[in-house]
Amino acid sequence: MATLDERENYMDGNKLVNKFCELLGKENVFRDEADRLAYSYDAAVLDASLPSIVVRPTRSEALGQAVRLCNENALPVTIRGSGTNLSGGTIPSPGGVVILTTALNQILEINEEDLYAVVQPGVITAKFAAAVESKGLFYPPDPGSQAVSTLGGNVAENAGGLRGLRYGVTRDYVMGLEFFDVNGELVKSGARTVKCVTGYNLGGLLVGSEGTLGVFDKIILKLIPMPAARKAMMAVFSEVSKASETVSAIIANRIVPVTLEFMDNFTIRAVEDFAHVGLPVEAAALLLIEVDGHPAQVEEDAARVEELCRQMGAMRVHVAQDAQERDKVWEARRAALSALSRIKPTTVLEDATVPRSKIPEMIRSIDEISRKFQLTVGTFGHAGDGNLHPTILTDRRDKEEWTRVEQAIDAIFDRALALGGTLSGEHGIGIAKSKYLEKETSRATILYSRRIKAALDPKNILNPGKIIGG
Amino acid sequence: MSMYDMKKLAALVKELEDQLVVCMRCGMCQAVCPVFAETGREADVARGKLALLDGLIQEMFKDPKGVNERMMRCLLCGSCAANCPSGVKVLDIFLKARAILVGYMGLHPAKRIVFRGMLSHPRLFDSLVKSASRLQGIFVKPADDFLGTSCGRFSFPLADRHLKTFAPLSFHSSVNRFNTNGASGLKVGFFVGCMIDKIYPNIGHAVLNALEHNGVGVLVPDEQGCCGIPALSSGDLKTFHKLVRYNLERFSPGGFDCLVTACASCTSTIKLLWPMFAGELSDAEKSRMQELAEKTIDISQFLVERTGLVTAASAHEGEKALLSYHDPCHLKKSLGIAAQPRRILRANSRYIFKEMSEADRCCGCGGSFNLQYYGISASIGKRKRDSIVKSGCSTVATSCPACMLQISDMLSQAGKRIEVKHAIEIYADSLE
Q: How confident is the model at residue B404 (pLDDT cuts 50, 70, 90)?
């Protein structure tokens, strides 16, 4: 694929730049090399790739027209929100076009009667959640990057978060989508109703498609009432196996907490060194648990969870007595990634996921793998939904160690798949994991996906190379 | 072909590599950067700038100008560093990068005149300001008597702003060889700083009053110099070191228990940046500087933590006014000082204290950022102004004269008659 720079030499490159300027306004077309470099990466530990041009539509029609312009000129295009992707999904093709959604950031409607909201793709997740909450409603998906991530990005990646166990993930809240196809034509799917069987479930295809099949213009999101009460607690274990077996026991007892988070000893010590929140550094593992719902039910569930923790061998269980204590429990969890990332220059945050009953085995395997490849690994994450985050601490500049890191990642994936799990719980496949896709699925799955892609995007301009390679 | 040897520059920037790799590109700085909130451009937020510096090391650029320009488009407010999950020392890196780029590309001619010609010669600087304070009436006319701001009489650069003009009588010309002892036995040195000396001498007098009431002895050495932050933030290490040396001669750390300042920027510069950029100082100078840095303390922190904080004998009865407080970045984000100024404000019973929303959001001044990027600076300032107005206060206090200047400009331009005061003025008023 020729870059825009090369095109300038023999084609109508400047004409194309002018067309973008006419369409979007000069102030929304970035060509300067410093600007382009600033859109060459995302949060994944991968090599950067320089786009030729970065554009920022401020009207939804202009977004469609910009996509069309790219298609007419066979230019690869990567849609970008806040660039917090952890699998390279927002790293552009070399010489491609980056289209920013950040200026399309209006909450178009919050409907309190019918419990839905309509948003543009560039709305910041946390701002949306706060706007919804101010009306006594609840939008549960809370990915770790929610303070900056965009809803468009969340939908494109089918983002998860801490509340996945009880409330599900982004997919479970997408009621409808309006998106542009490669020709800039608007496609509509879903509705503002709870029930809708009109036409193909195109939304289902687009959610988690990582910008490879269409470009979101409007998203209809489901809202739910805010739970009236919640209660958090921390259970301390002397053995990892006891903690992980407790996770299974809670679920087996038909209690579904909002969050059920795990932290290993390495992470506990890192958090305590960093945040001094009074964690038990001698503990082999911690479970951080929160239940919510009707006040009476919350009391009952909390008491049963506490009892189960003790039965399963917890050394101590501390139930937060007020909002302040609750905040402290979650402060420890929120500090986990920060604390780990300060130990070494490069932080590789993995998210291979297993059926939750396999959590004890997965934790054992991660431990074996980190010893085998002599790596520093802190493990924490969403134990309740089987989505652990083994976090490898390394220095990418150390080539020898980096090779071992890559081998360890392979081994973690192999193990997760052997346990009936999946490559990625919430970070996406992007370019980081596309080479592993066949291991989990099949050759036929990839070919089937590629046929869909080829039919919808014949010139392969929409985020090429992501998910299915090619 | 570029006139710059990018290989050579890459080698210089490589010095920052170990600090640069700490950034994991998570992008959380986007949530808090005031400049990014206005422009939405990745090259304006810390993650983008750190990537650009990395780009210099990788020799990705034909020319350093684009990166240099982006490096200057930063308030140095430290919001990103204060919220960085992986603890990137953003301010360190940016100041060092500015010094490297200026060392390599040369200092902007206008800055060369101001820093090397004026700022680094405190006596000359004083007399220039003195002349200017007599002549400024020709150029400016009062904009708002209540706020004490002025604007241009005719069109010239800066004419659209509502500025505070130079005071007719600077602080230093009214307190000669000031040296007292107090009943408490505590003695402080007072580092005045340029803005208090030349624009807000009342703050200096309030500091002296407050200290006197608390039985603290004060030494105010004559002919003090600038703390060096304007030069350092423009990458001019030469002027910065000259000023550090100059001040080291004026202040003998043995002569007092603490070095008190009432300017958040001066405090954080002496306390954090002098040691960090000690560079070419001799070992003897370094140890003196280290001692001075350790003794440096914000006036409100000093009063709250080191004295009994005397309050007025009788509480004010009758009508009370609403008072709010803006946290200067260099006090809260750099030094973690936020409770102490509020403590001294509450000591004045004539006011009812009310928090504004986003009290610790940057006011947008950023020193020379305000001169270079007034448009962005003003839109950030307007958000601060709106928070102040919404709080319903009739007086807004802060702990940094640079913030006061920006806030006065914003309020004055909007015709909002809200008094702008330093926290120490409010406290000192209560003692009279």
A: very high
